[in-house]
Amino acid sequence: CMMLFFFFKQKTAYEIYQCDWSSDVCSSDLADALAMVGLDGTQELLPSSLSGGMRKRAALARLICYRPRLLLYDEPTAGLDPVSSDQINQLILQTQKELNATSLVVTHDMRSAIEVGDRLALHHEGQIVFIAPKEEFIRSDHPVIRSFMESAEVR
């Protein structure tokens, strides 16, 4: 029986144990991380019983245990409904603030990019072709950006 708590221990807490931290400290850190992403009390759930949004938040909780200075997200809202996507976006912002970290979000979801980004970059044909503060990016007359923004119905 593989519980969510065990999953975290195997994937995250291993390094904590390598640092000779007590399992009580580890358990406390994991519980705090789960609470931070709104999954408090779910330690006993099987991973297969988690919804897509819960799985995304569990992955974020696993990351929080490391207390990183740089957070990298790869398509964090992919496959989620709009409500779950908004929740993930808010968690990204909250986690960034609480950890005093920098976030790098790779996404095709322009709504999410605009919501969580301070600066946006367009990667096109293997290169970063434009990078600017959010407001400047949105107003850009770059043809690829215009096409992307219009197809995403972001105005």
SSE topology sketch:
Elements: H1 4-18, H2 23-36, H3 52-64, E1 70-74, H4 82-99, E2 102-106, H5 110-116, E3 119-124, E4 127-133, H6 134-139, H7 143-151
Parallel strand pairs: 1-2
Antiparallel strand pairs: 3-4
Helix pairs in contact: 1-2, 2-3, 3-4
Quick take:
It is built from seven helices and four strands.
Shape label: elongated
Please, what is the average pLDDT? 78
The major beta sheet can be summarized as: 2 strands, parallel
Work out the radius of gyration: 18 Å
Which stretches of 5+ consecutive residues score pLDDT under 50?
1-22
Tally of extended strands? Answer: 4
| Count, helices | 7
Helix-strand pattern, N to C? Answer: HHHEHEHEEHH
Which band does the percent of strand residues land in? 5-15%
Report the span from N to C terminus: 48 Å
Structural class: alpha+beta
Trace the largest sheet across and list its strands: 1-2
The percent of residues in helical segments reads 40-55%
Description of the structure:
The protein is α+β, with helices and mostly antiparallel strands and 155 residues long. The chain is 53% helix and 15% strand. It is built from seven helices and four strands, in the order H-H-H-E-H-E-H-E-E-H-H. The chain has helices at 4-18, 23-36, 52-64, 82-99, 110-116, 134-139, 143-151; strands at 70-74, 102-106, 119-124, 127-133. Residues 1-22 have low confidence and may be disordered.
